[in-house]
Specification:
With 231 residues, the chain is of the alpha/beta class. The chain has helices at 22-28, 33-50, 73-96, 112-124, 140-153, 159-165, 211-222, and strands spanning 14-18, 58-65, 99-104, 130-138, 176-179, 198-201. Bound molecules: farnesyl diphosphate.
């Protein structure tokens, strides 16, 4: 990927992605579902490498939802194993590339060894200038409820206070939400943060989503007129 294009329009700083379609990708190729998730991780890796050249401050990825526990046990195990390997194998690259890892969701409820390696990765990447936020055991309604409870505890149930207590409180405002695989719904992802985000739904299945697809999405975002309720 080359330099970010010089564009006169909006520059997206924070992009979030619902990575959907791993299972269908595998099915179309007559491969096991696990292979779809494995190729999904490779797509994640390529995309993370494009964050800096594309001038993004933050990329947020929906990796495991609080509802994904309902999947068959072997699939959940596969996803957790991929997560374990990903954190271990990619941590040196995050550190070398100045990427700060951030986790949103109820991740303390994951397996103790994953929690431990995440804590280690968070600490070692804390000085990074660009953020990769990964949603793990994440549900947006649960996140809003937790934030509202904290806001209520200090007697300040306001928009600003709830925003300040969300898991995303140290991330830039969300500019663009992308969902792959042709599905058009939010699936309990960043509901509060999407209030003024632009949305893009693409047919590409997640393992086929490349940095070039992201660049096309950013170019599309650049020419959109954002009104934030005004005119
Ligand atoms: C949706 O595809 C994808 C998921 C539930 C998991 C997304 C996870 C990854 C891409 C890999 C792990 C991520 C990281 C950051 C290491 P689906 O299985 O629902 O596909 P389908 O709708 O076609 O069945």
């Amino acid at each position: 990927m080359g330099e970010a294009p010089s564009q006169t329009g909006n520059r997206a700083k924070h992009v979030a992605i619902i990575m959907d379609g791993n299972g269908r990708w595998a099915k179309r190729k007559h491969l096991p579902r696990a292979m779809g998730h494995k190729r999904g991780v490779e797509a994640v890796r390529a995309l993370i490498r494009s964050v800096e050249p594309m001038g993004l401050d933050c990329l947020t990825l929906y990796a495991f939802s609080s509802e994904n526990w309902k999947r068959p046990e072997d699939e959940v195990d596969d996803l957790m194993d991929l997560m374990r390997k990903f954190i271990k194998s990619d941590l040196p690259e995050f550190i070398a590339n100045d990427v700060r890892l951030k986790i949103i969701g109820d991740w303390q409820g994951l397996a103790p060894d994953i929690v431990k390696s995440l804590e280690d990765a968070l600490e070692k990447t804390s000085g990074g200038s660009r953020t990769l936020a990964v949603a793990l055991n994440y549900g947006s309604q649960q996140e809003i409820a937790r934030a509202a409870a904290k806001a209520a505890a200090i007697g300040e149930v306001t928009e600003a206070s709830i925003t300040a207590h969300l898991d995303t409180n140290d991330l830039p405002p969300l500019d663009l939400l992308i969902r792959t695989s042709g599905e058009v719904r939010l699936s309990n992802f960043l509901l509060w943060q999407c209030a003024y985000a632009e949305m893009l739904f693409v047919d590409t299945l997640w393992p086929d989503f490349t940095p070039e697809h992201l660049q096309t999405a950013l170019d599309d975002f650049a020419i959109r007129e954002r009104r934030f309720g005004g005119r």
